[in-house]
Amino acid sequence: MFGKILKKLDEKLLKSEPRTGKLFAVAALFDKPDDIIHAAEKVTERGYKNYDVLTPYPLHGMDGAMKLKPSKIGWVAFIAGISGTTLAFLMMWWMSGIDYKIIFGGKPYFNLPPSIPIMFELTVLISAIVLVNSLILIYMKLPANANPLMDTEFIKRVTSDKFGIYIQADDPKFNVDEVRGLFQSLGSSSVSNINEAEYEKGDSKNPLLSLKFMGVVAGTCVVTVLVSYFVLQVLLFMPPFSWMHEQPKLLPQGKSNFFKDNWSMRRPVEGTVARGFIPYEFKGMPDSMVVPTPNPLPVTKKVLEVGKKRFDTYCSPCHGYFGKGDSRLRGQFPAPPSLHTEKVRNWKDANIYHVITNGQNVMPSYESSISRDDRWAIIHYIRVLQRSQNAPDSDLESK
Amino acid sequence: MDYIKKQLPNSLMKTGGIMLVFGVIILILSFVFTPERAFFDYLWIYLFMLSIGVGSLALVALEYLVGATWSTPFRRITEIFASATPLLIILAIPLFFGLHDLFHWTHTDAVQNDPVLLSKSSYLNVEFFTARTIFCLLLWTMFYFLIARNSEKQDVDGNPVYTKKNITLSTIFTPLFVISITIAAIDFAMSLEPHWYSTIFGVYYFSGTVIAALAATTYASVKLKEGGYLDSALGNDSFYSLGTLIFAFNIFWAYIAFSQFLLIWYADMPEETFWMINRWDGSWKFVSIALLFFHFIIPFLLQIDRSSKTNFKSLKIISIWMLAAHALDLYWLIFPTLFKGNAGFGWQELSFPLIVVGLIMVIFKVSAEKKNLMAVKDPKMQAGLDFHL
Fold first, then answer.
1. ipTM for the complex?
2. A265 to each of A98, A103, A134, A244, how far by Cα in Å?
3. Structural domain total, chain A
């Protein structure tokens, strides 16, 4: 069903007018790989030069049958590949060594090792592109825009289930009847003449060379370039688009004429530690190595309110609003133990701080999401929760 | 097919034997004067023999696994090289007397005071090491005998059942081979520096072994073909695929070696970089650079042209070249542990080429004595001989 529709479409769209130009070649189809190899051998023997064989898949032994010398196309690939390697090397060297120097991981600006993957990729890319293009160039016989074989029954068959051979009319030994006879005697299942279309090959009617086509191509290029330039370089810098753009701040990795080295990013003054970036000295150590420091925050209403807010936001999904271990995650994450155990109640504040900062087993570290002060505030709040659940009798006595 | 079995010349045995004897004498002398160094030389020899033997076995299995036909005319030669595998069991025994000299992790007192080694001690301990070695050696030997026996039986009656059996065996062997060659690489080479690790190390060693095995097969095949020991129908085009495979695996080797280097270079972590730095200290730098050129860049350029893969002379050059390059690769893997700071090469190291070349010649001669040099009745043989580009 689908195939039929395709066939109809094919017939409608791809149907070419009968070719009226001069004879291009005589082509023959064969059914079996052995037949075509035999045919190629015979055609070579008869001394034909301008002929070619087309098969749906590569046949071993064809090179010998056609007496082909090793193809030179490998050298095209080699030269293209080497230029890709060189190009990538120069690109990496110029970008990271000259144009845009960034210190990365304390290494020199330009390094060979990370450039090698890029050099490798570009080698493959450039050689592939050049190869494909040169094959198109050879096969399409530019400046003609199509090989006369295109859209013939012959080419349709050799790209699916038959093995084809054709001898071109410009071969010095070519004679239509002789060639047809030869193919028939070799057992070909179908022999056909292939004519050129009128306009092909250097004809002024060649659509590729027509002024109209060239004009459209050139016009499209110019318009695309102009529009991209306008949008990216002009439009974005005009109001209202520029409103968000122009901000009195320096962007990371941006330029600033204020500083001598023209860099917007600065390094911290030597021997200083930035606010909020004070390293935690017991990072990654086991609990037992923590030297307890007292909670630096006073117990005030304000601190407790911050603590509650942070606890409810960051801790309660797992630990529950009252720290009872009643997770709201419905079993999607292991529920933690209660924070009211003897153990945690007797812990020093610094131990709880250690758990929040470092994480503990499956509980992740909250070092990067909760500031130091807020962590200490949370601890005060946990103490409040604990007191609320385990209030000593003395709390009942009025003061 | 017009193959008729001809015995290999006795000079093979004689030359090989003399080289072997001289090599062993040098090795014994170095055991007397520099015992530690002698064990490193011995490990070098052992790993090279392992590459040839087990690498060849893997190639044979590969042919059955993928159903290749072009390689069938050469398979028996690869099998003959694979016959070095059972010998590896005996060759392994002296290694066990040198564990203390070779492997730092065998020193229990040092391990006790070293948290890194302590954490690895459940893997790196002498009992488990011995068990793993025995496992690998028995595995390889068993599959060598199973596969080679089927292949030789087929010479008599040409029964395709043997091919089928070998396909099954190869299918089972391949995953086991992957595991066992990784174990061998980690145990024999990587654990020389027990603090260091690289997860790609097994693949790295594997790529080298395959190159060595391919090069050995190529060299022997070309030599035998030239000497008229192989079928006259065997054309140059069949050799093309051997050359191409060396070329391909060489690129694979470079790819793996570079992947290992790049990640270590990028992360720049002292627990990983020291291994590379050891290979960049003093004159080791030149060995490392030589490895790059000798193992990859020069052979790559030499082999890029198609004619180099069908021309017998250039095939011989490239296969000898790659065998030497693999020896250099192993030297580069093993010896920085012994020679800290500067590479060294003395009379002791001469035992390596003498023993390796001599031993391989002797093994080849002895093993080929009762076998055909081609799998004469293999059902794929005709297709292999007919192979044309």
1. 0.83
2. 18, 12, 48, 21
3. 3
